[in-house]
Design goal:
Blueprint lengths: L2 E5 L2 E4 L4 E8 L5 E9 L6 E7 L4 E3 L7 E5 L5 E6 L8 E9 L4 E3 L3 E6 L1
Parallel strand pairs: 2-11
Antiparallel strand pairs: 1-3, 3-8, 4-5, 4-9, 5-6, 7-8, 9-10, 9-11
């Protein structure tokens, strides 16, 4: 059973930084990619950033140049460095893992609140 455990959320002033971490554990046969999504109140969950097993990276336009996704050498932990945070970045951030057999796993989410 795959588990994703997120950490690093919190309250920060606009312009500040936070670093999110997501550690995957359990029986993971093959990871296609890992990433971060977010959901603000009253809005749909949206992609923030993702990294594939081959190292390809995608970012939402709204975070390009401010957020950086990375992973550890074992490729089971993914990080999201968030700089120059804005109030509109306030959301619950969810870690996501996809396998080559099309299984999708989600973490429980971590709250990020950016005050103006």
């Amino acid at each position: 059973q795959v588990q994703l455990v997120e950490s690093g959320g919190g309250l920060v002033q606009a312009g500040g930084s936070l670093r999110l971490s997501c550690a995957a554990s359990g029986i993971i046969l093959s990871i296609n990619g890992m990433g971060w999504y977010r959901q603000a109140p009253g809005k749909q969950r949206e992609l923030v950033a993702r990294i594939t097993s081959g190292g390809s990276i995608n970012y939402a336009d709204s975070v390009k140049g401010r957020f950086t996704i990375s992973r550890d050498n074992v490729k089971t932990t993914v990080y999201l460095q968030m700089n120059s945070l804005k109030p509109e970045d306030t959301a619950v951030y969810y870690c996501n893992l996809r396998t080559w057999s099309s299984e999708v796993y989600w973490g429980k989410g971590t709250q990020v609140t950016v005050s103006s």
